[in-house]
Amino acid sequence: MLIPGFARLLAQEQPPIQAALERAVARLPAPVREVAGYALLTGGKRLRPLLTLTAARLFGCERADLYDLAAAPEMIHVASLLHDDVLDAADTRRGRRAAHQVFGVIPCLLAGDALLAEASHRVARFGDPELVLCVSDAMLRTVAGEAHEIARQGSLSHGLDEYLSIIEGKTGWLLRASCRLGALFAGAGPRDVDALSSYGLNLGMAFQIVDDALDFADEAETGKPTGGDLREGKLTPPLLFHMNALPDAERSRFAEAFAHGRFSPAEVADISRRIRDRGFDRAARDMADASLDKAAACLEGLPDRPERDILRQALSFVRDRRA
Amino acid sequence: MLIPGFARLLAQEQPPIQAALERAVARLPAPVREVAGYALLTGGKRLRPLLTLTAARLFGCERADLYDLAAAPEMIHVASLLHDDVLDAADTRRGRRAAHQVFGVIPCLLAGDALLAEASHRVARFGDPELVLCVSDAMLRTVAGEAHEIARQGSLSHGLDEYLSIIEGKTGWLLRASCRLGALFAGAGPRDVDALSSYGLNLGMAFQIVDDALDFADEAETGKPTGGDLREGKLTPPLLFHMNALPDAERSRFAEAFAHGRFSPAEVADISRRIRDRGFDRAARDMADASLDKAAACLEGLPDRPERDILRQALSFVRDRRA
Questions:
Q1: Cβ separation B116–A114 shorter than 8 A
Q2: Rg of chain A over CA atoms, in angstroms?
Q3: Which region, left, alpha or beta, applies to residue A214 given φ > 0 means left and ψ of -120 to 50 means alpha?
Q4: ipTM of predicted assembly, 2 dp
Q5: In terms of CA atoms, which chain A residue is nearest residue B135?
Q6: Is the four-CA dihedral B125, A114, B211, B81 of positive or negative sign?
Q7: DSSP class per residue in A200-216
Q8: How far is CA B94 from CA A20, B41, B91, in A?
Q9: What is the C-alpha separation between A314 and A199, in angstroms, rounded?
Q10: Residues A289, A207: Cα–Cα separation, whole Å
């Protein structure tokens, strides 16, 4: 359910973003170039670069090298996907075989490291330490969120607050950085930089909440296997709602299987269907509205330019996406 | 066989370096702090921080926050050890159980990522983009060297040139960065910065060559299992000399076992002993002299201060070390 302006921009900007990503891959050390290219150059909505571009243009910045800056958050994102895939032993990513299935674990680990280093280097080349701090902050917070999530894997004893803290780290901070980089690069004032940063953080949290709801949608619709979070013991809102609705007897069986990742494919399919039938995925999506409202409020004081409308449309894009 | 001045400095600087590393660990995200602390706060000669300190002092810099800068290369080094251990499945590191044996693979991967991010962040906080470029360059080259080494694992078809290119990446560039950071931080002129960078690169290559020779020394002397490179299919100079000295019939059997990592413990012990008996480890150490001579030449034009003597003594330290 794309909104026209945002959809047009998404489509329009794919080629120059892709070109910037190709330039980035070309700069990587030869032995990791193929793996990094496989992971970075195919698929993906390029939401992060698009946010950097739009944030910078909101303040009138039209520098041609903006694309090279905008590539950095996407590189960090893909580096974390490469490392996550190693961690999760996921078989598919963005509808294709996961890179570690094609190239092996070790090349993926190193390609991820190289992407992180080149992202830092790329940002440092612009000569503004604020940009580097923004990016390394995001890297740290992303790792913190991932480590927090892993520490809670298989646990059912934490609640929504801790879930929100996890996703703020693992997803929010990099979308925050995507927006913040653009605003800093354009020379926006501190208040505007902070407003856009907060917009990005909240957009990112909403994005992840919707993502976690989509985890229980039909694979035919999303292109991703249904119920991955259930198999991996990640307590997301739909699962929390599901668990709370279970009779006590069933709940302890559920907790046991969840803790040890022991659901059969049939059980995963069954639980996913029950989550959809009872509207728990929809209820989870509704949770995203709080973050989206906060993000929308952040836009209020920003310049009244077309880019602000694009950023507003991005909120609807996140809320309504089906894949 | 420590040289007095260098030995004294090594001992003297351990506590303030340790304190800086502890401050760094305290800044890491809580979920990775324990793993990162285990890997960062114990063992290690702290050669990299010491080089940063000495390089800066050579130009009269005595800023107290120098220790926080000097911590960065050590953090990158330990991050690469954490990721390497995951790659190599090594059981011990610095004489203790490898971190991934204690904490598992995933926490080590994330702790490595966090150390890399905090190292970037730490350097960026000093506000000089040159420092960040120096560090991210080193990260990229280190990864490139590691990926190159892995691409050649089990191969006997490459020679010393390629070996030197691998170790320049995997070890040389971070020692280069350790020196360069100090010189840049102290405001040294471009020629001096480059001279110290080249000193560090060559010192690092010599360090690795000696390390690879020590791989065939007695475990009782070094505290590391003998012949690790043989088991892992890494073609280092002692192995190259050994292979070239084998009769044709034995050589193909050796190549077969090397390619597939199929040496029995008895074979590893036997080959290591033969390497020592025939002096191939000593011959490999002699190879380090070329790099040490280059490094020494780089010091010639630098200020004639006590720190230059320390840097000269570091060359003897690397040449003569037994563990």
A1: no
A2: 20
A3: alpha
A4: 0.87
A5: A121
A6: positive
A7: HHHHHHHHHHHHHHHTT
A8: 42, 12, 10
A9: 11
A10: 10
- Residue of B110, B115, B152 to mutate for A, most A C-beta atoms under 10 A: B110
The residue to which tokens 């901070």 are assigned: A173
- Give, in order, the Cα–Cα distances in Å from B31 to each of A152, A283, B23, B107, B114: 10, 30, 16, 9, 10
Nearest-by-CA chain A residue for B127: A129
Position B98 pLDDT exceeds 50: yes
Per-residue model confidence as pLDDT tens digits over B245-285: 999 888 988 999 999 888 999 999 999 999 999 999 999 99
Q: Which of B284, B314, B313 is nearest to B215 (CA)?
A: B284
Whole-angstrom Cα distance, residue B201 to residue A313?
51
Chain B contacts of A87, Cβ < 8 Å?
Answer: 106, 109-110
Beta pairing class for B92-93 and A92-93? unpaired
Distance between CA atoms of residues A316 and A296, nearest Å = 10
Confidence (pTM): 0.91
Asked if the model's pLDDT at residue A293 lies above 70, the reply is: yes
Scanning every residue of chain A, which has its alpha carbon at the shortest distance from the alpha carbon of B144?
A: A29
Distance from CA of B167 to the nearest CA of A (A): 14
pLDDT (0 to 100) of residue A87: 62
